[in-house]
Each structure stands twice: as structure tokens, then as C-alpha cells.
Amino acid sequence: MATSTNIQYLESTAKDEFGATVQIGAGTSDRRQVETFLAGAAITAGDWVMFDTAATGAARVLTVIQATFAATGRPLTVGVALNAATAAGQKVDVVVSGYVENANVATATTVGQALGIITVAGRAELNVAGALGPPCGVALEGAASNLCDVWVFKNF
């Protein structure tokens, strides 16, 4: 089911059931769009995913796998997986547009870099000049242990 982008919740705090003010994290709609797909294979939370072109018919755009690398970029990249799938057929929530914490990126990633899937499946890195695929996102901080917060560009 597609998520709605007509209403955006822009508040950074809210009241809990006891009336106390609490900070709202990345789980709110804060200009982020999340879609549910079926995994075509095992996926780790934080991995960049792409449409599974090995599937047939309409399942090609219902099923996702780790975004595979290509020297010329990866135009089929959909977004970043929020949860892990240990086997094909499991549901996986994917941020197709907006903010993601702890996305899988190359260790050398620095703040402001345009990201693409270039050398390692499921991992984004500096989008190389001349890549056929558009960038899939931008790094919002420097990487630590192959993870950083990113903004996913809407390609889906």
C-alpha cells in the first residue's frame, strides 16, 4: 500500500500519554516516505535496495534485493531498507524518499557527497562522474563503521 505524502508532520516534539513533552525521532512522517516490498533475498537493515529484475511480470517492481554494483551506477535503486529480511518473500520496509539513520555507505563517505551504488552490493559511495544512473541520495554526515545518516532521493 502506498503511503500518503499529502500531510507532513513537522513538529519535533509531542505529548506522551502522561502529558510530558517527548522528542520525536525519524519514525514520524517528517518528509519521509516509506513503502513495503517483498525481499527477493536476504537484506540487512540499512542496505540500499533495488528492484529485482530476476523476478517476472509485475513482481519485478514488488520485489527488492540488495542494490548490486555497476561501474556506471545503478539506476534501479529504490531506497534504504529499514528492517532486515532473512529470506526471500519476507516484507521489508524501504525509505523511498527522505531521511534515514545508519544507511550502509563506504567508510570514506563525507558530508554532502552524492551517493551511488558503485562497487559493493547494498552499499552507497561517492557517485562517480559519468555514472549512467542518477545519485540515489546524499550523505548528511561523515561515515563511521560504514554507516551514516542520509537523505534518499525519490526514484520510486
Short overview:
The chain is 0% helix and 35% strand. The protein is mostly beta strands and 156 residues long. Strands 3-5-4-6-7 form a five-stranded mixed barrel. Strands 1-2 form a two-stranded antiparallel ribbon.
Structural topology:
Layout lengths: L12 E3 L5 E3 L9 E7 L8 E4 L11 E4 L10 E5 L9 E14 L9 E3 L8 E2 L10 E3 L7 E6 L4
Parallel strand pairs: 3-5
Antiparallel strand pairs: 1-2, 3-7, 4-5, 4-6, 6-7, 7-11, 8-9, 8-10, 10-11
**Continuous helix count:** 0
How many runs of DSSP E, i.e. beta strands?
11
Total domain modules: 1
Quote the average pLDDT: 85
Radius of gyration, whole Å? 16 Å
What characterizes the major β-sheet?
A: 5 strands, mixed, barrel
Backbone shape = globular
Topology order in helix (H) and strand (E) letters = EEEEEEEEEEE
Low-pLDDT stretches = none
Main β-sheet, spatial strand arrangement? 3-5-4-6-7
How many angstroms does the end-to-end distance come to? 14 Å
Structural class: mainly beta
Strand content: 25-35%
Level of helix content? under 10%
What does this molecule look like?
With 156 residues, the chain is an all-beta fold. It has one domain (13-152). It has strands at residues 13-15, 21-23, 33-39, 48-51, 63-66, 77-81, 91-104, 114-116, 125-126, 137-139, 147-152. A hairpin with an 8-residue loop joins strand 8 (114-116) and strand 9 (125-126).
Characteristic terms for this protein:
single chain, five-stranded mixed beta barrel, 11 strands, two-stranded antiparallel ribbon, 156 residues, mainly beta
